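Allow me, if you will, to draw on your knowledge of protein folds for a short while. I have a record of one protein: its chain in single-letter code and its fold written as discrete structure tokens. The full record is reproduced below for your convenience:
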Amino acid sequence: MIGEFSPPPEAVQRIVADVAAYEADRKIAHQAVRWRVPVVMGSFVALAAAAVAIDIWFTRGAFLDNRYQWIQIALGLGIFLGGIEAYKFARKPAVIAQEKFRSRLLPMVFGFVENLRHGRGMRPDSFAGIPQEVTGHFNREEFDDYIAGRWRDLDFELCEARLRYKAGKSTSEAFRGVIVSFPLARPFAGKLIVTRQIGSVSRFFRDAWAKQVPIRPQSGDAEIDKTFEFRTDNEAATRELFGHGLPKALKWLLETWPQAPARLALTGARGYLLLPGSDAALFELPDISAPLDYNRHVTPIVADLGRILAIARLVRDASQPG
């Protein structure tokens, strides 16, 4: 499959030349980071120690006094946040070098995508329509890579997302991975949610808070019904998809994306495929300390996007019977 997504030979030559140019910038940035990190962090530690010493001098004998505790808390928080910013400042040459090369590299290696649009930290326009039943409850959202365009007959928006729910001091993760949205040639009349099976107790409490308990049809495939739960407000349309090959597509999806069971939502004219991932982001370059190699580092980036688009296209086709 990778041959279908590989850049043409002339593009590969340009990429290899750019990799060589990046190597020169990488070495300069790496050398800068090697002295900047100890110098900047050493200076910060010295300033932090001086601030603590001054605080001790002026508040000596009053550490447990409630009138001074807010000073200790503010100082500790300031040192913690300041340390993070100091480290970011020390590594800034590495970040600039990598982002500059990355913004040039990805449009070339993703040349098989028509009308390619790429960004970082962008919220896809289609994200507003994603059903919360498939993402889980969240009130915090973070986005990394955003890629949109057309591959073959698949128009898509893709993003790396992290969705979390924060209540007080507690934070839980609703979803982390890749979200692909695509239009359906034949709209689904209603809503279909496909998620991982959960226990009967969890299902009871989830449905107890639902405004309307959905229909939960079975696909008829024992392996699929054991792994996935189907919830819909249009049983007839869902069963039509079962006959069209949706269970087979989901079974292939389990083999192709083994990290965790995927999630799928069909709502009206649009479909959403959620592919849970690990903490490691896709489409990333190695650390500035490591030399960049085309075969080891660039080719897998192409393969990752190609695999995701092939999965999305198959699932879309199985989600819209002719």
About this structure: The chain has two domains: 2-92, 112-318. The CA atoms of residues 37 and 273 lie 41 Å apart. Residues 2-92 form one domain.
